[in-house]
Amino acid sequence: MLIHKSCIAMLFAAVRSASAFSIRSLHHVSAPQQISLLRHFSTAAAADSDTLINNRISRAPVPSSLDARTLSDNLDLVLSHLRSRRASDEALDAAKTISTLNLDRVALIKERDEALQQRNELSAKVGMLMRESKGEETEEIIGIKAEATTVGETAAGVEESLAEIESKMNTLLESLPNLLDDVVPDGDDDSQNELVSEWGNVSTLPKELGWDENFEPLWHDDVATNLGGWQSDAAVGMSGARFVSLTGDVARLERAISSYFLDRASQKGYTEVSPPLVVSRTALEGTSQLPKFEDDLFKIMPDSHTCNGEDAFLIPTAEVPLTNMHAGAILEESELPISYCALTPCFRAEAGSYGRDTRGLIRTHQFYKVELVKITTAETSADEHEKLTRHAQECLEELKIPYRKMRLCSGDVGFSAQHCYDLEAWLPSTGEYREISSCSNTGDFQARRMALRYRPAPAADANADEPKKGGKKKKAKKPKPVLCHTINGSGLAVGRTLVAVLENYQTPDGDVVVPEVLRPYMGGLEILKKK
């Protein structure tokens, strides 16, 4: 990739002056070049702990997710990222406690190992004395045995304390979010997310559909009602708030959107999966929805069903079963990247959303989504994230729905993500862009939790064919398995896409024009008529 000389000069000037650097200062550079530039800058900044990137310490010294030792060795960096995320005091205290407990853990490991070594030495001495006494257990031997037993009990006691400390550390680690990629801008909330790009003109479709200056576009639920396809009262009556029933042409249009997304993902090389909709606590811990977000999940009563003896939950997203398909596995590098797609209903309690988006399909307890998941290597992770995001963007472009691509700021990025893009579709009823897809690179954060690894391909060995002494060829040594990287994103959220289609393609007469790419899935139907 070609990088403008002026940009490189600016980067290294910033490094030399140890100044705070922000990606916002590269607004004139394309998104892929911004990322490349930040990678160069991070490498240089790693040698200077005073240099901040987006008001936090660069994560270049810690490219992987956290374990207790890494956190303890890089506590200042971890605290810097937690503060950048606007994390709670409890999260900051948890990181500090892990660091302290790790020091205790190291001391206990040393104490245990010394005790075990002493016991082994005493056992060896007993064996020697037994041989000398020809099996007779002398008072000296009895005394040494008693000492070995005491030392062994000491080691067992230390092991018990060690297990207790490690359990506390693991529980605290589960409460901490991922470290942030250096490209993530600093910010408090979604109002400070960074605009990466925009596509489409919000006035193009209105002109084609004959909207005049006096036309006020309707909300999607009103459009659907005019088509005879909105049955919210019936849904609420049987299921409660935030449930909707769609009928007739509107239900058919929703199905057409789903089929189009799945077919398109398959054309892009994703393997379609029909996964379980009920998953275990362990599976949700692997993708980090648990333990932090249990209130947002629909839990199944244990006397109704459990997953292999564990608590069972309805899936909040197909990301959970798709990523967990390889939990605990060691893949071969030649198998990567793995790309999956799935259409599933998703179930979310929306516990923290009381009073927000109560109208329509924007925020419901049950919705359909086509999920895209990639499992890859650290080296290809950033590129695969861009590809997945691009695949989601192309869906919106083929639907001709104006959208913008946003890079989430540090205060808005999700718990498991190190870098995240939101795609926001234009909704004319409210004159605003709303999220329709979120595409996250979690690095090895999820893979560490679910023990998902791959074995790198062995490096070419120039001496591999040379015979050893004795005439046999050297056997190539297998590389150790390393953690995979996981990427996920909506391609797209079906309900919100239906919202965007109904609102952007409505006519002043109350009809809805079917987007061209969806017509093959609607039996060639071009217009949904007002009832």
* Terminus-to-terminus distance: 55 Å
Per DSSP, the total helix count is: 15
What is the radius of gyration computed over CA atoms, rounded to a whole number of angstroms?
29 Å
Question: What would the average pLDDT be, to the nearest integer?
Answer: 89
Strand % is 15-25%
How many strands in all? 18
Low-confidence stretches: 1-21
- The assigned structural class equals alpha+beta
Give the strand order of the largest sheet, numbering strands 1, 2, ... along the chain: 3-11-12-13-16-10-9-4
Shape: elongated
Indicate the percent of residues in helices: 25-40%
Q: Could you describe the largest sheet, including whether it forms a barrel?
A: 8 strands, mixed
Features:
about 525 residues, disordered N terminus, elongated, eight-stranded mixed sheet, alpha+beta
